[in-house]
Amino acid sequence: MSAVPAATLEHLLAEAVTASQRAYCPHSDFPVGAALLTAEGAVVHGCNVENISYGLTNCAERSALFAAVSQGLLPRSFTAMAIHAPGVPLISPCGACRQVLLELMAPDATIVCSGSEPGRTRTWTLAELLPGAFEDF
Questions:
Q1: Can you state which reaction this protein catalyses (predicted)?
Q2: Catalytic residue among 15, 40, 61, 117, which?
Q3: How far apart are the first and last CA of the chain?
Q4: What are the pLDDT digits (tens) for 112-131?
Q5: Claim: this prediction has a pTM higher than 0.90
Q6: What is the distance between the alpha carbons of residues 36 and 13, in angstroms, rounded to a whole number?
Q7: Which of the residues 16, 23, 24, 99 has the least number of beta carbons within 10 Å of its own beta carbon?
Q8: What is the chain's Cα-based Rg?
Q9: CA-based angle 109:22:49, to the nearest 5?
Q10: Residues 3, 23: Cα–Cα separation, whole Å
Q11: CA angle at 60 for the pair 30 and 93, rounded to the nearest 5°
Q12: Is 117 a catalytic residue?
């Protein structure tokens, strides 16, 4: 299914665990970390950053993507992302993140997720995560 080697996805998941430890989540105590793989093989971290006004909170997935773009990396060139949340058995991206992932990542990008259950992961393509998405590119 994934064009990204299993060893690379495992490394990316470990990076997402590290990113989750940097989350700022004093209101929910629900840390999430993301690790974005660039076409060149670099990894960009993101974590959720909460605000007492929850609508101003930014998810880990979007934090990683926005950080990469702000560093000058080209949208649609990211090949994979790992997402980790230690507070649930298995995490998946929210609807808003799914739409942003689709727009900013490569169309065939791989998304791999994990949670508190050791060894349990789930892997999707962007098309599987968001069928019928808004697309204008």
A1: 2'-deoxycytidine + H2O + H(+) = 2'-deoxyuridine + NH4(+); cytidine + H2O + H(+) = uridine + NH4(+)
A2: 61
A3: 24
A4: 999 999 999 999 998 899 88
A5: yes
A6: 10
A7: 24
A8: 14
A9: 75
A10: 29
A11: 85
A12: no
